[in-house]
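Dear all,

This email documents one entry for the complex benchmark we are building for the journal club exercise. For each entry we list the sequence lines for every component of the assembly. Then comes the predicted three-dimensional structure of the complex as a token string, followed by one or two observations. Please use this as the template for your own entries, and keep the labels exactly as they appear.
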Amino acid sequence: MIQRIRTIAFHTFKESVREKVLYNLIVFALLLIGSAVLFASISLGIERLLLVNLGLSSIAIFGLLMAIFIGIGLVSKEIDRRTIHNILSKPVRRFEFIIGKYLGLLLTLVVNTAIMAGGFYTALYYVERHLGHEDLLLLDAIYFILLQFAIVVGLALLFSCISTPILSAFFTFCLYVVGNFLGDIRWLGHESGSAIFEKVTALLYYLLPNFSDFQVISQAAHGKAVPSYLLTSGSFYALLYVTVLISASILIFEEREF
Amino acid sequence: MKQGSETRFRTRPQIWLCWLLLAGGFLALWPIQRAIDRRAGGVGENAEILDFHSGKTLRTLSLGHAGLLADIYWTRAVQYFGRKRIAHARRFELLAPLLRITTQLDPHLLIAYRFGAIFLAAKPPEGAGEPEQALQLVRQGIVANPGYWRFWQDLGFIYYWDLKNYKMAARAFETGSKQPGAMVWMKAMAATISAQGGDFQTSRLLWSEIYLQPETETVRRSALAHLAALRADQDIRELNALVIRFRKEHGSDPRSLNSLVQAGYLKAVPLDPSGVPYVLGIDGKITVGPQSKIDRYLLTEPSSPPEAHA
């Protein structure tokens, strides 16, 4: 089983790296990170801070775009091309196909994030002429960005099983945005004075992916380490949420007829 | 066959027309944009528009990238200030809102509070001439970054230089001196400014504290010099009061401090803390003697040229 999942994941990775949009996004992200050096020259006293904020935000935003644009086609593309019949006619079970697809795209994103992080650290080295302990703390922020990608890929995969690519992209992006506002939504419910509305917003708060848990870029940019409890709880949260999303995807995919 | 059709396509006159339109179109855009800028006032005019008024709203909308937005807003504030300075403007309407938004987006962007306060407090055309706004900004910085003692230094300087409120300035320096990591000169500043504001008792107390702290010998010597100057200051004030009393009662100025002794106002010519007699200056005011080891620059009372009458 592991071997079959590994094979699907590897092929998904190979297929993803052939996407031209991927290279466009990486090049654009690297250009943006490099341009931070120029932006800093028109500001005052924030050379490093601007580079860190712009670099990490670029990694997060472009990685998110890659996760959505490649993730939405994971399953639907196989169905459209009818290659799904070939795959499932082989001794591959449907859940193996879903898990393999998920891991393949995640691997793609890890590799791309590593490339962008490499570019980011090169720019940082260019500005500071050395890399210190404070700079290594930024790896925590990059790890949290990857955790976000893991959930976004899960969402994209889920929607890819049930909808068209365009709608899947729309739903995934909407959930990402809503996931950043969950704290405010819950506060709104609390302030509304309506017991039902409060319960509904509280339910949404726990049900939808809370992406604000992973927002540590500003903290890391100021040289503050991410607390260990947050590293642990954030990792478990992402792992559990991804498990939920993949399980839901498998359930839907198992019932689908082609 | 396909090759042939492609070659024919490339040589068609329509292609040349397309290239001509493309180049001509771009060239025509330039004067049009220039005309629009002339009518609308150009890029500088657009900078006077503040699209968002609340940093908190922007923070919510930033989807976790508030730090980057804060950097952008800080850069915008720096550029706005620089542009206004170059234009010798006397009004900086957007500076305070831009700084407020910046610090709301990233409450730990220390430089925005510190330099922002300088931009706001300085008198036009060097700055916005809004020291109250500067105070508010620095106070917000203190609330958001309670352990950062430099904000108290900035607060003290705004009270001292821009508002001439020596009492509040001394209080700010003194509070800042109690923050973790604060430099010893914060207390020295508080002591000096207290004396300038006429609060000699507080000043003496602070300098005594500095003297007793296990600081370097230089700091201790400085504290001793300030304590001596404070004592001399108080003596000079009291002696000047006696001179005024003499003038009222005798209808003429005393010729020297000996005149005060002879008139019974003093038992003997008083000595300053360095053991040198005080002298009466040609302007009729008391000062330290030419041999005195008291640092004249530390005296808050104006020191006239020492020329004894007697």
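Observations: The mean pLDDT of chain A is 89. Residues 2-255 of chain A form one domain.
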